[in-house]
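testing teh design pipeline on a random one, pls ignore if ur not involved
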């Protein structure tokens, strides 16, 4: 990695409700143009890191208690989420949040409003999202609550893309989806990264998928980043795969 990263997380610690310690030492960096995967088992702290990165922890009654997060020169903890969105840091939360009663298209439009887009810009952006996710064209009038889980994830990602992000932050996009749909979504993310230079930070429990599509990965364990490396390096480490696929042996550390 050369130059200042787009996102830098240093020695991050966080708690919920002043008592539950969720993070106790997370370091990671995302350079412009990279796809970085944040992997780790259930409860390792992935969602907490992503919420901290979008300054959404206070809304979950959590707080950053030490360390810092810098996005494109901004101190994230002092920057309101809507200002981060306008600066290009846009998140797709866990559980593919859609407004279930609104149509697919209305959901997408809400993603452009945060940026203060005008009608013409929204029309152009909608056309772009339908080109990225052609499946959504025929569902544009359907209530988001009635489409498939995969399509809901596409709506959630499409809505984020309407905000024209520079850094897209995704929480477990594979959750609850069929393998073919997961593959389709990750291929789309990889294409956006390659063709448009979209920088991506994605949390995943599905290590195999994450390492297949990411440039680098950071492994979280019990609220700490315990190792980091290129996806190719980590893919080649049987011990890591075994450990994080729940098969047993703990991995030795690889240098950061
Ligand atoms: P998952 O894949 O299950 O979402 P995760 O790696 O994203 O797991 P987090 O959700 O960040 O992990 O959770 C990290 C720790 O913080 C866990 O011990 C969890 O129980 C705790 N935690 C998460 N959210 C809250 C909350 N709102 N209040 C209290 N504790 C929380």
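output:
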């Amino acid at each position: 990695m050369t130059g200042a990263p787009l996102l830098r997380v240093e020695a991050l610690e966080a708690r919920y409700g002043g008592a539950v310690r969720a993070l106790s030492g997370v370091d990671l960096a995302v350079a412009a143009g990279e796809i970085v995967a944040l992997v780790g088992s259930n409860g390792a702290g992935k969602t907490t890191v992503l919420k901290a990165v979008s300054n959404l922890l206070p809304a979950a009654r959590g707080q950053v208690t030490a360390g810092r997060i810098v996005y494109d020169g901004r101190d994230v903890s002092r920057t309101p989420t809507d200002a981060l969105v306008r600066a290009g840091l846009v998140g797709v939360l866990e559980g593919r949040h859609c407004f279930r009663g609104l149509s697919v298209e209305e959901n997408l439009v809400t993603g452009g409003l945060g940026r203060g887009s005008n009608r013409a810009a929204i029309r152009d952006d909608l056309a772009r999202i339908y080109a990225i996710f052609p499946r959504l064209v025929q569902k544009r009038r359907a209530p988001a609550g009635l489409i498939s889980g995969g399509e809901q994830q596409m709506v959630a990602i499409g809505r984020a893309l309407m905000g024209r992000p520079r850094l897209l932050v995704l929480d477990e996009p594979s959750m609850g989806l069929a393998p073919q749909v997961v593959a389709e979504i990750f291929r789309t993310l990889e294409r956006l990264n390659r063709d448009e230079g979209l920088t991506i930070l994605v949390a995943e429990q599905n290590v195999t998928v994450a390492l297949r599509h990411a440039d680098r990965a950071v492994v979280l364990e019990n609220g700490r980043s315990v190792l980091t490396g290129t996806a190719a390096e980590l893919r080649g480490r049987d011990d890591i795969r075994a450990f994080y696929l729940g098969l047993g042996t703990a991995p030795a550390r690889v240098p950061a």
